[in-house]
Amino acid sequence: MAGLSSLLFIGLLAVGVASVPVVAQQPSPAQVASFLDGLTQIERDTLIGKLQMAQSQLRSRAKLTFELVSGGPAFYDVTAISPRRAFIEMSFDKPYSIKREADGVDRQNYELIYFPPGANSLMWKVRVAVAKFEPEDLQRVELIYTAPPPF
């Protein structure tokens, strides 16, 4: 009978552990000094400045021509707002990381990762394409709200 009790206890323990929700580890405020992969601090600041300038211009109803895409899994509430609103409301100040990605023919690509505040927040993956020959021009900004790795 003791063997049955042990098995029952182990089974209940396994069910209890399995039912604990998994929350992604959020970086602490001390960790928010951006990890840079393939670019300098000056390039980081320039890129963030471009994004913030575009936000400011869109708020004042400027007619900017870069592509703007936003989304996430269909059941996330964030997919109910427009890409323009998601972009304008995004805080670009403190990315967790910025990575220079492979160059396109006429553009330089970057990926920025942001962890919004809050215990149950997921992450924003922001992909940015900047014109190579006119580096002041944004060509495309894609904002994806998603679960952080390893999910």
What's the quaternary structure here?
single chain
The overall average pLDDT, rounded, is 78
Strand-and-helix sequence, N→C? Answer: HEHEHEEEE
- CATH-level-2 architecture: Roll
The 3D shape can be described as globular
Strand order of the largest sheet: 1-3-4-5-6-2
* Largest β sheet strand count, sense and barrel closure: 6 strands, mixed
Question: Structural class, from helix and strand content?
Answer: alpha/beta
- First-to-last CA distance: 41 Å
Query: What Rg is obtained from the alpha carbons, in whole angstroms?
Result: 21 Å
Quickly name the level 1 CATH class: Alpha Beta
Question: Count of helices?
Answer: 3
How much of the sequence lies in strands comes to: 25-35%
Number of domains: 1
Count the beta strands: 6
Q: Runs with pLDDT <50, length 5+?
A: 1-32
Report the helical percentage: 25-40%
CATH topology annotation = Nuclear Transport Factor 2, Chain: A
Question: How would you describe this protein?
Answer:
By secondary structure, this protein is α/β, with parallel strands linked by helices. The protein has one domain: Nuclear Transport Factor 2, Chain: A (Roll). 28% of the residues lie in helices and 25% in strands. It is built from three helices and six strands, in the order H-E-H-E-H-E-E-E-E. The chain has a six-stranded mixed β-sheet with strand order 1-3-4-5-6-2, covered by helices on one side. Strand 3 (97-100) and strand 4 form a beta hairpin. Helix 2 (41-59) crosses helix 3 (83-89). The protein is globular and about 40 Å long. The relative contact order is 0.17.
